[in-house]
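Researcher: I've got a protein sequence and the SMILES for zinc ion. Could you write out the 3D structure of the bound complex as C-alpha cells? I'd like something to compare against our soaking experiments later this week.
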Amino acid sequence: MDEKSHVSMEQHLCLVCGLGFDTGGILFDRRLRQSMKRHTVTGWGLCAEHRRLFEEGFVALIECDPQRSGVPADQDHMRPEQAWRTGRLAHLKREVLVRVANVALAPDVPCVFVEPGVIERLQAMVGPEED
Ligand SMILES: [Zn+2]
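Model: Sure. Here is the predicted complex with zinc ion in place.
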C-alpha cells in the first residue's frame, strides 16, 4: 500500500528494537493534499514491549557495529538514527548496570548503545544469579 493520502497514521520508531509502531495519532495534510503514505514516522519512542521493560526498571543494551554506524570521530555518543544495529539486545536492571558498568545513568534513559562484546562482558560481570 504505497498510495498517497491526506491522512496518515503516525508512527514512532522504537529506540530499542528500531521497529515502527503506531502512536495512535493521525496526521492530516494541512491542505488536504494526497501527500502522505499510510504511515509516517515522526520520531523516536518505545514500543509497547520495551515501554513495559523500561517501566519495570530495565535498561536496554543495544549492540551496534561502530564501523557501520557512521558516527563522526568528534562525537562521543551515538544518535539513534546513526546506530547500525547488529540485532543483539540485552536488558539489565538499571541499578545492576550502574553498579557493574560504573556509569551514571539518568532515570529517563531507556537504552544505551554499546559496541560488540560489551553485552557479554557485562553479563559475565553480573553473573548467573541475576537474570
Ligand atoms: Zn521495541
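Model: The first strand starts at residue 7 and ends at 14. The longest helix spans residues 118-126.
Researcher: Great, I'll pass this along to the crystallography team.
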